[in-house]
Write a structure and sequence with these properties.
four-stranded antiparallel β-sheet, alpha/beta, single chain, 15 helices, globular
Amino acid sequence: MSASSQPLDLIRVEHVSKRFPLPDGKGDFTVLGDVSLSVHHGEVLALLGRSGSGKSTLLRIMSGLIRPSQGVVRSNGQPLLGANPNLAMVFQSFALLPWLTVQDNVELGLAARHVPPDERRERALKAIDIVGLDGFENAYPKELSGGMKQRVGFARAFVLEPEVLFMDEPFSALDVLTAENLRGEIDDLWNAGTFPSSSILIVTHNIEEAVYLADRIVILGSNPGRIRGELQVNMPRPHDRNSPRFKALVDHIYSIMTNPDQVVTGEPTPQRSSASPFSRALPHVRVGGISGLLELVADNPDGGGSLPELAHRLQLEVDDLLPLVDASVLLGFAEVADGDVRLTTIGRDFATTTILRSKDLFRQQALGRVPVLSSIVHTLKEKESQSIRSDFFLDMWDDHFPLPEAERQLATAVDWGRYAELFEFDAIEERLYLPQSPVALSS
């Protein structure tokens, strides 16, 4: 089929939601809520979102590996009722069969489609050559580096000649240099018109990667995952990282992702509200990480810093940096605007004062700005023993989050509460209790 006769939308998602049941019949956890998007012919589309935005779940729904709770997915205009035959996927994990050679691993998908052996061999060798692994056809996965294993993953997808190639964070398990090299080679293939797919959909949390590879970027929000909006990259290929447009887009996206209420396109998305302090997720960072970030920002004469610059200096991915920023903002130590983080007056004090005073400041801010910590302290004060099993609070979080996330929320709250000396935790008895000299709650 020629490019001119190809349908505009190779894959179309229409009002898709996905819910998973919570344990013990406590209702459902909504991972995706009313998501609609399309993969167009001849484009590289990036799905960009933080952890918890349902990126990988959406990818699996679009590939037909799991079914949506509501809505429909269409492939070439037809409802998708099973695995999508028009796409192939490259995963974060290499997922190679260790007892098979490189060539045998690449031929797996063709064998499943009952392609004759001679044709399998010819197509596999061509794909292996495209990814630069000719000469390693008879090697086993244990003989390959991480980058070479991922090249096999790409060859295994290329050999199927899919209409759309899905890539689920394909470079995140690689070291920085290997990832950059492979990322550049994929981009070169696409720009040269020799890429074996009509379109690419890449899921990532790496902002620069999205701007570098994609023509269009869809930004997802969290809790539940939803479309916040989309951005057109609108740059000549290959995308020049040093161009003003590239840098402006990266800064703009950092600003969007650090401001959940900021409109990307269209109407603002209303945020969920709940009276329970246990419904608002704490950023999963330790106090030491918050202190380290604030001290680094405080080193700048103006008490501020660009988020992309901080990510580069700290060698952190977005999913590692943004929770630190979120925690700093939640505690009132920092403010974020236009992709820059700036210390508040109390944040600068926290970052530059003595250890004892920093603990006092953290306690003050935690009680005043983190309702779940205040709720825990109030509950402990109401108990005659001034202690309670941690399961009590875990059940509170479990009403709003899946159990693994509820456990992470408890662990984060314990870390913050211990540092602030709001309460103590006995890991053997799994009990929280007030310290001998309880901290009075501010009114």
